[in-house]
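Journal club side-thread
Mid-discussion, someone asked how the predicted structure for our own chain would compare to the paper's figures. Pasting it here so we can look after the session.
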Amino acid sequence: MLILRSLKQPLIECVMRKKSLLFCVFLPLFAISQNQPEDLLHFVKPIIGTQRMGHVYPGATVPFGMVQLSPDTDTIPYELNGKYNPDVYKYCAGYQYDDKTIVGFSHTHLSGTGHSDLGDILIMPTTGILKLNPGIAADPSTGFRSGFSHNTETVEADYYKVKLDKYNILAELTTTPRVGIHQYSFPASDDAHILLDLVSGIYNYEDKNIWTYLRVENDTLVTGFRQTNGWGRTRTVYFAIRFSKPFTDYGYQNNSKKQVYHGFWGKFDQNHHFPEIAGKQIRAYFNFKTTANEMILLKVALSSVSTKNALLNLQTEAPGWNFEQYKRKGQNAWRKELNKIRVTTLDKDDKISFYTSVYHALINPTIYMDVNGQYRGLDQNIHTAKGHTNYTTFSLWDTHRALHPLFNILQPKRNADMILSMLDHYDQSAEHMLPVWVNSANENWCMSGYHSVSVIADAIVKGNTTFNIKRALDACITTSLFRPFDGLGEYIDRGYISCDHNGTSVSTTQEYAYDDWCIAQAAKKAGRMDVYTTYLKRSENYRHVFDTASGFMRPRLKDGSFRKNFDVLSTNDQGFIEGNAWNYTLYVPHDPTYLIKLIGGDKHFIRYLDSLFTMELPDKYFAETEDITRDGIIGNYVHGNEPSHHVAYLYNWTSEPWKTQDKIRMILRKQYSVAPDGLGGNDDTGQMSAWYIFSALGFYPVAPGSDEYALGSPAIVHAVLSLENGRKFVIETKDQSAKNVYVQKVVLNGQELHRLYITHSEIMNGGKIVFYMGALPKTPVSH
């Protein structure tokens, strides 16, 4: 009826003008369809990056969801014959695209990390003879795992579907923020089972489970917890599982090692139809009788606090059994976030790459609190977040570079809440430090630097401060003075970290120097000029590890001399973390002007950058570094590893800035594609994707902590950023094409821009920037 009303006037006009009625009916319908905005969900392909180095999971989650419900395709152990098993690295996210079997669906995953954990509370539906061991991939009949085909696999934002071929079961998954919702369509069977595997985990080994506990509350409700010791050494997950149909029978398999003393539980048959079980290696089964195509649903709620809170999360977020309703709500949450950036691109693949990058960028950090605000803190006590959402999964060595700066534009409220979460972490820390790499109430101490201060300073400088600036700045200063942390005491005393006993002495010195510059910028904004002066001086410490003789950053001994044994191409034992001297010498994002002077001036620096992108780096130079693979390398430029992400923009500080434009478009083309191996390196909880988003839009935060974004070469045709303050920032390109990668001029709000950057306030105030593109470089302007 509404459509007919909308057609009424055009139909009258057609009759009056004696036009064809058929034409008149179809023209308005076409116009209506054209006016409807595209459903951006169609351009999200979560399967991108599931193979090789991407390490993302293809399952269901809402934006920043606490639950990441996804298939796990194997259960290989972290160690083999007492040594690290390198094949386990492929399973950082639990899923490998090339695998042929699925062992089940677990509820916690890390997206695109170089190390891993989680994989909690694995569920697997089966039929036939009950099997309580996953078996081996080479022979799925040996266990409960099932073969599957990508032909029956559907992967969307907050929705996953696959047919488990072995059992003829259709599995569907969706989520709310704290609840995983499973829908299994069974065949007719008198022997249908749903398995609950509390043994399985990612990066698993025999003693990873500290303890698990399972309690059958009634014939549709099960509760329990699992505590593990892994990357997070004290991690506890509570759960509540509700079945849509009563199970007819249940039992357990307890493969825990026999303890010297185990009390008097032996008087019970605990393995069959007993209401509770506890141990380190437990799998449970729940039996059903099913008719053809009968659906059984499960709702699995998580909590870090208690089973009571897990049940509260379940009752609050998922009270009913309408699977499609939860799927629709979750996908609408994604639509809301995706619609904050609407882009027009040259082709469909570019749009898929763009919106899949947005999707990946909004998975982490993850919500880490229950619906009542409670969460387990770093001190392992229960806290309540007051006035903000508490978050975890801070991969800050990666995400301080572009992901958090992106949030300062598109998600400022969330980013401020993330900083409040960091400050709560600081208050709970026994070391009185801000997060380094934190997940699930555990500081993992992974990677180097104290890059929380970059995230905090970036927000302060850009005016995104719903938190107390004094409290935040004091936390940054205290963190930077914790002498026992990773050579920090020596850095304070000497101005550099010596290589005598520190394997990453050079890169860590450089990272501390950048972080100190961030503290200086935050202090200046806060009016604390004494702190500004002190930390601005500390930010020059990178100069102490630059060797003028070789022209590279170089390991330095305690006596002040540079180490003689030095290979500028190797990533192994050269003083750098996940990189070589060629790349890390360029890691001075806060002071490129002086870096150019150090390296030998404008022309020499340009030759250095040119060589980086064109030289050949043989495999032997990164063979021992897991996080660097051939896929992520262009020449000797390692895009697949984050310390290089600002490098292409450094041409902007030279007399040949058009080379930034050329290199950016080349990297976009070579390092991102619409395929399962479509990422040139780990996504690292959104950093690779954030780089793509910024660079495709035409600007990038070379030094977070500054309010400037370096201009590049936009790859989009048109973009509209809908900001939280109600304003819109429009990006437009003229004469855009695959060949027209060079910017001829830039017009901001009607005025030609005679500089190579825009500011944060220029974006957040709303307005329009137009890039005029061409096939040939344009004479440079000053930075």
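Post-session note: The longest strand covers residues 209-218.
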